[in-house]
Amino acid sequence: MSQSVEDNSSAPAPASSAEPIDPDDPNVAHHVVADPDQQPHGRVRHWLLQGLVDQSGRYQGSYAAKAEKTHSWWRVMCLTGVDYFSTLGYQPAIAALAAGLLSPFATIVLVLLTLFGALPVYRRVARESFKGEGSIAMLERLLPWWGGKLFVLILLGFAATDFMITITLSAADATAHAIENPFAPAWFQGNQIVITLVLIALLGAVFIRGFKEAIGIATVLVAVYLVLNAVVVLVSIGHVFENPVVVTDWWAALTAQHGNPLVMVGISLIVFPKLALGLSGFETGVAVMPQITGGPDDTPQNPKGRIRGTWRLLTTAAVIMSCFLITSSFVTTLLIPQAEFQAGGEANGRALAYLAHEYLGPAFGTFYDISTIAILWFAGASAMAGLLNLVPRYLPRYGMAPQWVRAVRPLVLVFTGIAFLITLVFKASVDAQGGAYATGVLVLITSASVAVTLSARRQRQRKRTIGFGIVSVVFLYTTIANVFERPDGVRIAALFILAILVVSLVSRVQRSFQLRATSVTLDESALAFVREDARRGHIHLIANEPDDGSAIEYRVKNKEERQDSHIPLGTKIIFVEVYPADSSNFEEDLVVRGVMKHGYRVLEVRSGNIPNTLAVVLLTIRDETGVVPEIYFEWTEGNPLSNMLRFLITGGGEVAPVTREVLREAEKDLKLRPGVHVN
User: Rounded distance, CA 639 to CA 363, Å?
Assistant: First the structure.
């Protein structure tokens, strides 16, 4: 009988599905499915694929799913802070360029949204997605099957935009600080693209060589950078107090331009989306959760100490950044002529550096520039590590990327090449990339807001649902306003999304005949069934599509299959049944349970894909018993093309020939390949 998921929606669940199986129990057999592609041939390929991560797709780097060494929350804050705090290098200048004299008011709106919008949202994300998977994983769980996978792929496109523009924009701004330094060589002028490309190449080289633990470096960089910024801001505030005329001049120009204060507030509410770069860092804040040391009472299911540490990380970072955003916005707007913020101006992309040179001299200004260049460059390292964590976590598990995507070095080469292309397209301009960066940041924050809103609604938390719903609407408005104002971000994200979807579709089709299970666990009863038959020298399995589970179902199936397939009456048989699960999943850990039904032995397994699952179960039985099993099918009715589409989408379709093809791909030796019989 053909296995299919089309008519199985009402099929009974496996009888023993509620009983967990411990893979370490001596009465079970746990087989990790080997991936032949993980043994690279050739010196270059071996070098590229060195350190290929395990089948689960975990990247063992700064954002590892399970950190070998953990740290205090404030040190981990510095790791995410190289991305978040480094925006001070260009945020005040971009804010002044976008909002003009209204920059301080628009910044206050941004800070309020940070503290009362983004911060509560990501505190909830930290509680519900504490393995470092972020809001994307929350939406994946809330939106199952193919719709959820497609939504995740789209979000990955925006996340890629966020991280890639972080690399290119930070490198471009680091270049701007280097060029504008009074001690910079003359040949720096006019070569910003070349210098930016060199910085990106150096970043790629660091990861090609092997990116080690970054928290120690990040802690020093963030501490020095924040102290220097505090000095610049305090000195600038002192200069404002010494020259109060700058305040009256600014206010006079502001009232002349915008009228009464109510109009200013209204315009600030409209223009603040242009300042959205100041919201970056929250998604990486929850991504680094596995690095935080938890409490002694933490459990894998409820790491309370780690969650509390993440809350402190997010709150402290948000408060520090909010203070710097407001103060830097005021002093740069009051003390720097508006013309200097324009393209070609000395404060373009480096407002605080302008003040450092202006009021603290070239020596301090140069030290400030070096610190800014270092943290901006290292912000690119944080973004690269985020990409190396994000892509292997999802795409290979969906079957939507080649296996080499799990290796660090090939991905680094791909991302470095993309960063080169973006730099050339935008000509290493900070202003030109600001909209694209903000779009990626805002889409991720909006998706996180929607995720926590849906979560609160599912848990029947009415007040929180309303509150998070309002935050979601505000971020949605901010995102839409930014897209209309700076559509280049959507264009870049659309290219990433299109590339991801095309690669995903091609890869899913190419990998359709692979063994998809990452491990197969046989419980005690399943082992007893196959070992009993193995002692007789033969293992005969009958593929049965679960129906009503009645005695007559198994009796008729046994009689028909023995008659049609010429199975001797004295030969013992075992039924094998695949119960439908989410067919959009590609990789699975399979658990095979042995149960007795109406006197018949049955192997039950739950999976989203039937033929590939049957194939890997057959190979596992062979490896466990040393006997090559044989399986018996009935032909499936229907058009072969439609059955193939059903296989790709639902995991069913023409099961028998696909099972045979999967076995043919996995086992080249005919003598060791399980037999497939179709009547």
Answer: 78
Contact 574, 502 (CB under 8 A): no
Cα angle: 639, vertex 8, 547; to 5 degrees: 105
SS3 674: coil
**432-471 residue pLDDT tens:** 777 777 777 888 889 899 989 998 998 889 999 999 999 9
Angle in degrees, 0-180, between the axes of helices 430-458 and 408-426, rounded to the nearest 10:
130
In the three-class reduction of DSSP (H, G, I as helix; E, B as strand; rest coil), residue 657 is classed as helix
CB 30 within 8 A of CB 571: no
Dihedral over Cα of 231, 232, 233, 234: its sign: positive
The predicted-structure confidence for 385-418, as pLDDT tens digits, reads as follows 777 777 777 776 666 666 666 677 788 888 888 8
Write the DSSP symbol of residue 292. Answer: B
The set of residues, in sequence order, having a beta carbon less than 8 Å from that of 474 and lying 6+ positions away, is 113, 117
CB count in 10 Å sphere of residue 135: 27
The 3-state DSSP class for residue 529 equals helix
Type of residue at 261: P
- Can you read off the two tokens belonging to residue 537? 């020298």
Q: Give the H or E element holding residue 677.
A: strand 675-678
Element (H, E) at 645: helix 640-650
- Please indicate, yes or no, whether the overall pTM of this predicted structure exceeds 0.85: no
* Main-chain phi, psi angles of 508, to 5 degrees: -60, -40
Tens-place pLDDT, residues 74-101: 988 888 888 888 888 878 888 888 788 8
**Residue 308 and residue 305: Cα distance in Å, rounded?**
5
- Closest C-alpha among 107, 444, 390 to residue 281: 444
**Strand 517-522 to 29-32 pairing:** antiparallel
Q: Are 384 and 163 in contact (CB under 8 A)?
A: yes
How many other C-beta atoms lie within 10 A of the C-beta of residue 622?
19
Between vectors from CA 149 to CA 300 and to CA 464, what angle results, nearest 5°?
60
CA distance 65 to 46: 25
How far is 346 from 333, CA to CA, in rounded Å?
Answer: 14
For residues 99 and 266, give the distance between their C-alpha atoms in angstroms, rounded to a whole number.
12
* Contact predicate 283/448, CB 8 Å: yes
Return the closest-CA partner of residue 161 out of 430, 516, 640, 496: 496
Report the chain's C-alpha Rg in angstroms: 30
Q: Strands of 600-607's sheet, edge to edge?
A: 29-32, 517-522, 588-597, 600-607, 573-580, 540-543, 630-633, 675-678
